[in-house]
Each structure stands twice: as C-alpha cells, then as structure tokens.
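Entry details:
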Amino acid sequence: MTGNLLFLGFFLAGGEGLELLGPATALAASVTGVVVGSRPGAALAVERHRRWLLTSASVAAALLVDAALTAIGLDTGTGREPAPGTTW
C-alpha cells in the first residue's frame, strides 16, 4: 500500500506520466477490505477465542487452496475458457 500511496501523491503533485486509476483503485480496495474484514471480527469478538481462530483458519485455508488451484491453472469458478495455447 505504501507504494500506491506514493504514486497517488506523485500524481497529485503533478508528476508526468502517472495515472490516478491504479493507485486510487488499490486504496479503495484496501479500505473496503479493512471495513469488510472488520465486520466478522466485531461479530465474533463477544464469542470465545477458539471459534474466532477456527473461523479465520478456515477462511485462510480456503483462500490458500483457491490460490494453489489458480496457480496450477485450474478453473476455480470463473467460468472463463482458458487462453489459447493453455490447457487446464
């Protein structure tokens, strides 16, 4: 995020050849992730810590499996066809 904020600052300062869309999108996505990610934390804060650990570990494991399947080229639900010359 630091690099995106720097590019955003350079753009606002009038730097040539810099675009606003990339850093602004990254900043918006980061803020959205913080807000969305804090909701389960607030909801589970009154629960026992064991449930919070189980929930966060399950979400992390699911994301890790999805990333691994994507990295080896398997379709993880996008519904898109593979690029020409690519096999799944």
The longest helix spans residues 21-44. The chain has a mean pLDDT of 78. The CA atoms of residues 28 and 80 lie 26 Å apart.
